[in-house]
Amino acid sequence: MAHLSPSASAVFSPSVARQQLAAAKDWNYIDSWLSTKFNGKPPPVFERNNDTLKALLALAALNETADEERELLARVEAKALQDLQAQEDANPNKHLLDSIEESLTREGQTSLEALSSLSVSLNQPVFALEKLGRGIIDLHITSNDLDQVADRVSILEKHLKGELKKINILITDLQSDAYQPPSDLAKRTSDYQRRIKGLAAKLPDLKEKVASLSATVGTPITIQDVKNEEDKFKALMVTVKDLEAQVKSYHGLPQDTDLARLELEGLRVELRELTRKRDSMFEGLVERESPRKPR
Fold first, then answer.
1. Would you tell me how many other CB atoms lie within 10 Å of the CB of residue 276?
2. Which of 136, 155, 180 is the last residue in one of the domains?
3. Rounded Cα distance, 6 and 18, in Å
4. What is the pLDDT of residues 99-118, one digit of tens each?
5. Same-domain status, 71 and 27
6. Residue 16 in domain
7. Do 175 and 169 form a contact (C-beta atoms < 8 A)?
8. What is the pTM for the complete model shown?
9. Closest by alpha carbon to 70, among 78, 58, 81, 80?
10. Angle, to 10 degrees, between the axis of helix 106-121 and the axis of helix 129-174?
11. InterPro entries in the record, alphabetically (predicted)?
């Protein structure tokens, strides 16, 4: 057996032989199934490999299952039809119903078919006017509810379309040139990084300078000290404003003290004279306007 090639030894392997036998049986089954589907005509030529065999076997299994279900459904329908025919034949009122149906006019037949269709649609095999009316009302209520839901969905859809339009406009704006980075962004970034590195290198020296200045000043100044000084400054500003108001009241007087006193005295005399004239004019006005008593 040493002269045999590996492929020859593989062919004569028992496991490979069993696999080939099973594949041959499967292909025979597929060929017979295809011949039945093509009505004895040869099927189109296709590649015969394991993948094709698996696909055809799965398709044949599904087809047989569907055929069995269809055959079972046909049997059930035939049995139901036989039962209905038997019940109809056993009905003692069959001839009466047939005669009534034959005697119906075209409008009557249309009405009867409408009632029967309505009974089937409402799942009410036994005709009951009250139940049919209730079923119709329920259908109307359901229809109105569905219409309201449809309106809400349309409103929501319109709102979503509006929001989508706004989002698209926003995306367009964000993709415009106004929101694009400048062309020299890389250069600016490198400049900022270089400045940051320079400031970081100077930071230890600045810290040492601050420490030396703090040691030179001695007692550190707190925020409360600054606030107290600010309050004192505000009080001085109020005093200065009061003094400025007092100084403005003496505006126009001579700089010499004696002359200023003389001018002030003259103004006082003038004020007294004006006051006297005012009083005399007021008294004359009172006497003139006062009613005189008859003698």
1. 10
2. 180
3. 18
4. 777 777 888 878 878 877 87
5. yes
6. yes
7. no
8. 0.30
9. 78
10. 60
11. HAUS1
